[in-house]
Each structure stands twice: as structure tokens, then as C-alpha cells.
Amino acid sequence: xxxxxxxxxxxxxxxxxxxxxxxxxxxxxxxxxxxxxxxxxxxxxxxxxxxxxxxxxxxxxxxxxxxxxxxxxxxxxxxxxxxxxxxxxxxxxxxxxxxxxxxxxxxxxxxxxxxxxxxxxxxxxxxxxxxxxxxxxxxxx
Length: 141
Hints:
The chain is of the alpha/beta class. The chain has one domain (5-13, 34-140). It is 35% helix and 23% strand. The chain contains 4 helices and 5 strands; from the N terminus they run ββαβαβαβα. The protein has helices at residues 38-51, 63-77, 99-108, 131-140; strands at residues 5-11, 26-32, 53-60, 90-93, 119-125. It has a 5-stranded parallel β-sheet, sandwiched between helices. Strand 2 (26-32), helix 1 and strand 3 form a beta-alpha-beta unit. Helix 1 (38-51) packs across helix 2 (63-77) and helix 3 (99-108) crosses helix 4 (131-140). The two termini are 12 Å apart. The relative contact order is 0.27. The model has no long low-confidence stretch (mean pLDDT 95).
């Protein structure tokens, strides 16, 4: 986790997806605490892949469906063709874990074999932001 940067982005279920400036090849921890419509899940998954997410960890409500949506978005982005390891997007779901465990995994085990992912985006899908709390939880995991 040397030279790593953590960014926090809160989105409510009805938020528009912003342009992720300054991110290229990054890791994302998707913390889902709100009910998200399936079309929003798919749009968000495509947006993450288009923005350069190379490793996604889903935690919270429907995290296994999030894993599937992100994995499918990554395959869709390459027209379901076989891709070299350098272009592969890794996706995990952490449904039976505490958030601290998912954050620990993001820091210590979520490694891309071809890229150093020095930026982690905490994408918080919730009605109310909790930036300070989630950043502190991430740093102490």
C-alpha cells in the first residue's frame, strides 16, 4: 500500500454520475448502503469501467449482484473477447464480511498482476454521506 491515495465519492441512488478526473487505473471499493435500482447499478458499473477501474470490491446491499454487473460491464467493454491479463478487471464481493475486512482486503490483497493501483476510490452509495467515518475506517483497517 505504499504511495497510495484514497478518494471518497458519495452518490445517492438518484445522483448523476460525475466525470472522475485525475483517476486512471484505480481500485474501487463500492460501499452500498442504499437501495439502488438495477438500471442505476448497471450504469454505475459501466461508468466505473469506462473511468479506468481495474479492481472493484463490492460490499453492502446486493453486493453479489454488483460483482456480476461490474464483471459484465468489463466484459462488455471488450466485446466479450478474451483480454490479456494487463487489461483484465478483477471484481470481488464481500457479502459475509464486515466493512473493515473488505477495506483490509482492498489494502493488502486486492492486487492487479500488471498494474500498481495507487489510488483507491471509496464509492459510497447511500442517502447520507459518511466521508470522515469511512475514510477513518479504511485507514485503520
